[in-house]
Design goal:
This protein has about 300 residues and is mostly helical. It folds into 2 domains: about 80 residues, DNA polymerase, domain 1, CATH 1.10.150.130; about 180 residues, hpI Integrase, Chain A, CATH 1.10.443. Helix content is about 55%, strand content about 5%. It contains 12 helices and 3 strands; from the N terminus they run H-H-H-H-H-H-H-E-E-E-H-H-H-H-H. Strands 1-2-3 form a 3-stranded antiparallel sheet. Helix 1 packs antiparallel against helix 2.
Length: about 300
């Protein structure tokens, strides 16, 4: 291991211990750092020799080959790493201090229509253990807007049927409580009753959602469940993802008058600016309806 690689390891460890970053985030930061070190190696440079021009040259090449969101994250990763190196005394100056963050492309989420969600959920069977699991899973995704990783992480002890609450663990191991609506509660009770989860023969796990072999259901497994039922409901494959249930939950709640800060708390957004993306979706929908229906919307 080179000295530069060791310094990258120290930074990632610091981000984990001191900042509590999620595993996926740490992997992304490490990948960004390794890519930069590979570039430095090709340029016969070391971290201590990097100048502002070097950083600008590297990021310029990234912007030509990567999506805007990817290059923006790489910029943020490098700025954080170099700031850490200066703070810890490994470097005397920060070559990224005047580098401006790349602007991320502003992509609005594309939720399913309420009628599509209703049609999909109402068509779910409740005959086999897998049927009951799928219904409970999809009702959870849409009913609470939890992330896929949060849904797969829910354990039996996270369910509070008395208070009708579910504890979920989000990014950075932050926990929050989400409400258990009556439809979701019924689906969960059915899944946990005889003929449901126990039929999957749990293998030493307290995770709520199990695969057909009795182990914890994975993120990929959730994706397959969503795709199978969405396709059966006639929804185009290009519009299908597990995350679309989260988008749909937020957008539909705002469309029905929910306070934006309530939605922020429900989804576990650290910043309300993230939640505000969904208000843009609602406004766009309102504009379309207005243009289609109002007699004076067009000359």
């Amino acid at each position: 291991m080179t000295d530069d690689e060791r310094l990258l390891g120290e930074y990632v460890h610091w981000m984990s211990v001191e900042k509590g970053r999620a595993i996926a985030t740490l992997a992304a930061y490490r990948g960004d750092g390794e890519a930069f070190l590979a570039w430095l190696s090709n340029e016969s440079l070391h971290l201590a020799e990097v100048t502002e021009d070097d950083v600008e040259r590297y990021l310029g090449q990234l912007r030509e080959t990567r999506a805007a969101s990817s290059s923006a994250r790489a910029t943020s990763s490098l700025r954080g790493w170099f700031a850490f190196l200066v703070e810890e005394g490994h470097l005397e100056h920060d070559p990224t201090s005047r580098v401006r963050s790349a602007r991320r492309g502003r992509r609005l989420p594309k939720p399913l229509a309420e009628e599509e969600i209703t049609s999909l959920l109402d068509a779910l069977a409740s005959e086999t253990a897998i049927d009951k699991r799928d219904r409970a899973l999809l009702e959870l995704l849409y009913g609470t807007g939890v992330r896929v990783s949060e849904a797969t992480g829910v354990t039996l002890s996270d369910l509070d049927f008395d208070e009708k609450l579910i504890r979920v663990t989000g990014k950075g191991s932050r926990q929050r409580l989400v409400p258990m609506g009556s439809v979701l509660e019924a689906a969960l009770r059915d899944y946990l009753a005889p003929g449901g989860r126990t039929e999957l023969r749990p293998r030493a796990t307290t995770r709520l959602f199990l695969n057909a072999r009795g182990g914890p259901l994975s993120r990929q497994g959730v994706g397959l469940v969503v795709e199978r039922h969405a396709l059966a409901a006639g929804i185009e494959r290009s519009r299908i993802s597990a995350h679309v249930f989260r988008h749909s939950c937020a957008t539909h709640m705002l469309a029905h008058g929910a306070d934006i800060r309530v939605v922020q708390e429900l989804l576990g957004h650290a910043s309300i600016a993230t939640t505000q993306l969904y208000t843009a979706v609602s406004v766009a929908s309102l504009q379309r309806e207005y243009e289609n229906a109002h007699p004076r919307a067009h000359e």
